[in-house]
């Protein structure tokens, strides 16, 4: 019978073998090289195609387009938020009819493209000119900007209603019960207990919705609104210069990235009491 | 043989067949099929929209899967490369991506051909450009879905695969992928519905999809509200049909789970 009489003396862990050139690294470096090449190409096209004249002519137009995009999205998100509140409450109400109507609204506006909605409002309602003139609403439906605004408000209200409903329903029942046990009235409990918790849950989806709206707002360019995309198309149709689209890409990327970081900061700030 | 099949498909055509919706309105309505109305043109648009969406999904999913693999790789450079891709294409409006790819391909091809001393005008197929643009957007979103699904799979699953002596590829295919599909399916379902709506953008570069065909009909017949309303109804119908289909797929994916 044999057995171990002495233990192996303790030894340090083997040194980590240095990973050489793996397939992953080769792929990573080559893709990064491709990105660098594309970036260099972008810079080169901008430098080679630099034209003081074009810059002075279209630069201010781009800034104006940027402002149009931002104001359009800003106004429609705010108005959509206001419209989403009754929809969300109708969706949560015990009244079957109100619930069904709100559900139908949300379903229809979420499952048809924004482009088709915009066309339906701008071209479709625009074909009822005599009727609209007799009601005195023609000034509204004549203007592409207002039509874009209306379709955005209706569209984003459907999405925001779902965000709001989801957030309110995510607050545990115990919070309602706790408030009732403390003798707090329902409206105050909602305002001071339910809503603050719900809005923290809703913060990230709201940020996503704003980003989606900024990206979606490019469609108004098709109905002749000169937003950022519209100015880009205008500049391209005049110059046939591919740079125009690259500049628009840079602007859009900048807006989205800024918004994303602001939102990350906001979320970190507003949820710091939840961190352990 | 093919005659029988085409006759069968013709008879079952949900829009323009003998029991199709457009045919039910009679042969004199605006949406009648044939020369009198716009039914057959719109039906063709529906076909183009569906074909485009269906053709985009496998390409987009494949690229998205590769991006997700890259984004969770141990190698830093690969993660960075994947991060740049998703940041760019999730940040750009779909419409702008479409224009950049459409005109970019045109200009790029022209430059390459000019190198070979060919000076003719090249036209890029709108379907191809639309498919590439939508696939790029779809892949950058689906890579995020797949990445979070990858993270939901415990590390022990990989270790178990290694312990069983499976190669890395077989671990991925036999152990990780079946679970991945199940976890990622709800997210991918959403992406499919978004893709279906995004196909409407290709009408801008002249592809004859639902929006374009109804738009032509609206302009010619001066019944804009009616035709754009039909366009919205068609998209709604596609969404309803695909949500039924996707419910079936989700049940199929969960067939091995314990029924509670």
TrEMBL record, chain B:
<dbReference type="Pfam" id="PF00528">
    <property type="entry name" value="BPD_transp_1"/>
</dbReference>
<feature type="transmembrane region" description="Helical">
    <location>
        <begin position="225"/>
        <end position="249"/>
    </location>
</feature>
<feature type="transmembrane region" description="Helical">
    <location>
        <begin position="128"/>
        <end position="153"/>
    </location>
</feature>
<dbReference type="InterPro" id="IPR000515">
    <property type="entry name" value="MetI-like"/>
</dbReference>
<keyword id="KW-0812">Transmembrane</keyword>
<keyword id="KW-0472">Membrane</keyword>
<feature type="domain" description="ABC transmembrane type-1">
    <location>
        <begin position="46"/>
        <end position="246"/>
    </location>
</feature>
<dbReference type="InterPro" id="IPR035906">
    <property type="entry name" value="MetI-like_sf"/>
</dbReference>
<keyword id="KW-1133">Transmembrane helix</keyword>
<comment type="similarity">
    <text>Belongs to the binding-protein-dependent transport system permease family. HisMQ subfamily.</text>
</comment>
<dbReference type="InterPro" id="IPR010065">
    <property type="entry name" value="AA_ABC_transptr_permease_3TM"/>
</dbReference>
<feature type="transmembrane region" description="Helical">
    <location>
        <begin position="42"/>
        <end position="71"/>
    </location>
</feature>
<protein>
    <submittedName>
        <fullName>ABC transporter permease</fullName>
    </submittedName>
</protein>
<keyword id="KW-1003">Cell membrane</keyword>
<keyword id="KW-0997">Cell inner membrane</keyword>
<keyword id="KW-0813">Transport</keyword>
<dbReference type="InterPro" id="IPR051613">
    <property type="entry name" value="ABC_transp_permease_HisMQ"/>
</dbReference>
<feature type="transmembrane region" description="Helical">
    <location>
        <begin position="92"/>
        <end position="116"/>
    </location>
</feature>
<feature type="transmembrane region" description="Helical">
    <location>
        <begin position="174"/>
        <end position="195"/>
    </location>
</feature>
